[in-house]
């Protein structure tokens, strides 16, 4: 039951983040709905495809698309109530990422996936919808931006969910631990400006220049 509830919450917050970006990009009503719906269910569809669930739950049942559509409609009408669109998108995306990383990992475990596969499917569930959203609005996906930690918090949350369940914790505790850690890690990284290092430029050349300067000083 909790797994379903958190799945709907994740769909709602991801749909809201997608709808807010659609509003910020000045898309029409159908465009906002499209971005919101794909953001909300894209990760879940990718998860179900990897787990061999055919057809994916988002297409088989009406609840997921209904939650996404209702959220998109509300955001489309009441988006001025979000005082800072960019910050709202970031917070909602972090919450959705944490929820989907943990629910995706736990769903994979329940379908017989190994712990490693479950953690990776958790990342896929968390990132899939956001990647589709960013591609649709012609932005670099958050997963690939050097200024953001995204995959590492998602992996951390998924791994904690899998480890907790593997060590005998209840689904409720596993989901709370994984989702809370992933979302908190993501928001903390944004606040502190943590980032993954990018490739250094011309390491050999810089070392050579440094050696030359050192020799000249002597």
TrEMBL record:
Pfam families: Gly_transporter
Name the UniProt record assigns to this protein: TRIC cation channel family protein
Transmembrane segments: 6-23, 30-53, 59-78, 90-110, 149-169
Keyword Membrane tagged: yes
PANTHER family noted in UniProt: INNER MEMBRANE PROTEIN, UPF0126 INNER MEMBRANE PROTEIN YADS-RELATED
Keywords from the named record: Cell membrane, Membrane, Transmembrane, Transmembrane helix
Topology within the bilayer: Multi-pass membrane protein
Compartments, as annotated in UniProt: Cell membrane
Matches recorded under InterPro entries: Gly_transporter (IPR005115)
Domain Glycine transporter: residue ranges: 5-79, 91-163
Signal peptide boundaries: none
């Amino acid at each position: 039951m909790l797994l379903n509830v958190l799945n709907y919450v994740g769909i709602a917050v991801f749909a809201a983040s997608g709808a807010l970006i659609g509003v910020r990009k000045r898309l029409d009503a159908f465009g906002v709905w499209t971005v919101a719906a794909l953001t909300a269910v894209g990760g879940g569809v990718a998860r179900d495809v990897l787990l061999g669930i055919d057809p994916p739950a988002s297409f088989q049942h009406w609840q997921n698309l209904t939650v996404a559509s209702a959220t998109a409609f509300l955001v489309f009408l009441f988006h001025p109530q979000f005082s800072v669109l960019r910050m709202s998108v970031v917070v909602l995306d972090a919450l959705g990422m944490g929820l989907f990383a943990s629910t995706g990992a736990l769903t994979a475990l329940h379908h017989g996936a190994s712990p490693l596969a479950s953690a990776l499917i958790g990342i896929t569930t968390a990132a899939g919808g956001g990647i589709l959203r960013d591609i649709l609005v012609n932005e670099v996906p958050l997963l690939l931006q050097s200024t953001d930690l995204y995959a590492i918090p998602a992996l951390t949350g998924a791994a904690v969910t899998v480890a907790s369940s593997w060590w005998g914790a209840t689904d409720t505790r596993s989901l709370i631990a994984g989702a809370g850690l992933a979302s908190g890690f993501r928001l903390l990284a944004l606040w502190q400006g943590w980032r993954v290092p990018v490739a250094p430029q011309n390491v050999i050349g810089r070392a050579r220049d440094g050696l030359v300067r050192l020799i000249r000083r002597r």
